UniProtKB/TrEMBL annotation:
Record keywords, A-Z: Cell projection, Cilium, Flagellum, WD repeat
InterPro entries referenced in this protein's UniProt entry, alphabetically: WD40/YVTN_repeat-like_dom_sf, WD40_repeat_dom_sf, WD40_rpt
GO annotation, biological process: cilium assembly
WD repeats: 103-135, 200-225
GO cellular component: cilium; intraciliary transport particle B
Record organism: Perkinsus olseni (Perkinsus atlanticus)
Database matches in Pfam families: WD40 (PF00400)
Coiled coil: none
Name of the featured protein: Intraflagellar transport protein 80
PROSITE patterns: WD_REPEATS_2, WD_REPEATS_REGION
């Protein structure tokens, strides 16, 4: 089992910086009902792509801040982006119009956004160490946590009642239900003199298998149960693990490191790995307004998104 990779990159004007977010949404009339890939990043634009042939569909919109994270839910019209100025913006996925904005949600950048499984609650994480929960309309519901370091990633439990989030070398679980205490555990190994060997950079929580996967600066990915019991620890990879994502059915796992995607089964054992360096574009597969990025740039995947049937992986 292997991944067949296709590279989609924007023009030199639009690729000024890194791609910080990708998402897959149900398509509209322009794509004949086919799903669309949305990508965003430092260029302050949201770009639209056809999910099957990779054709560029154009720019959805430009915002006045660097986009640090993007999320959608099912067939919702809203694309939600977090920005480096601390705002969360709800953008119409058809017109590109900004419909509403949550101002100064975080001091510093919004680092991560994720809808719960029902699409009713939105969590946000920030450089300021706060984790907040919002309604569909962008109203604050609660500040779930405040920690001492930046929170880089979060994921909802299968029942959408608990959030797992990263904090330095630890994973924290905090529930929305009153009366339940928080859980936390160290998610990287200790180095010499008990000093941790890096921070947790990414995590995901499967709603089917109920397993949590994390990736860290120590070049390992790990699989846990919801109590923090370690079920699998990978051998060290060549670089830090920057992105992890379960397939919707929880049977497969994608692990992203510098210039590579590793495909694993639910127990963590690798099926295959795909080298991302040296990718080239088929000129017929994208709008000629856009050009190819330099191959082998040594970049690490920062965002992963599976299609609902688990047959397509989008990375940015």
């Amino acid at each position: 089992m292997r991944l067949a990779i296709r590279s989609l990159t924007a023009s030199s004007e639009s690729r000024d910086g890194m791609c910080t977010g990708v998402s897959l949404k149900s398509g509209g009339p322009q794509t004949g009902g086919a799903a669309e890939i949305l990508s965003a990043g430092d260029h302050q634009k949201i770009l639209r792509w056809h999910h099957k042939d990779g054709a560029m569909l154009g720019e959805l919109c430009t915002v006045d801040s660097h986009i640090t994270t993007v999320t959608t839910h099912g067939g919702d019209e809203a694309v939600v982006v977090g920005c480096s100025d601390g705002t969360i913006r709800f953008i119409n996925s058809t017109s590109g119009k900004e419909e509403r904005r949550a101002q100064q949600t975080h001091k510093g950048s919004v680092t991560h956004l994720r809808w719960d499984h029902g699409g009713q609650l939105l969590c946000s994480c920030g450089e300021d160490g706060s984790v907040k929960v919002w309604s569909r309309t962008g109203m604050i519901r609660s500040q779930l946590a405040q920690v001492s370091t930046a929170v880089s990633c979060a994921a909802w439990s299968p029942d959408s009642e608990t959030l797992a989030f990263t904090c330095g070398s630890s994973i924290h679980l905090k529930t929305l239900v009153a009366g339940r205490g928080p859980i936390q555990w160290k998610a990287v190994d200790s180095g010499p003199e008990g000093v941790s060997s890096g921070e947790v950079l990414c995590l995901d929580w499967s709603p089917v298998t109920k397993l949590i996967v994390s990736g860290a600066e120590d070049c390992r990915y790990r699989i846990w149960d919801a109590s923090g019991l370690l079920l699998y620890r990978s051998d060290p990879l060549d670089h830090a693990v920057t992105a992890v994502q379960w397939t919707p059915n929880g049977k497969l796992l994608a692990v992203g490191i510098c210039d590579m995607i590793k495909l694993c089964d639910a127990t963590g054992w690798g099926h295959s790995h795909t080298n991302l360096s040296g990718l080239h574009l088929d000129p017929a597969s994208y709008n000629q307004q856009y050009g190819s990025a330099a191959p082998g740039s040594g970049s690490s995947p920062l965002a992963l998104c599976w299609s609902q049937d688990g047959t397509q992986l989008i990375m940015g």
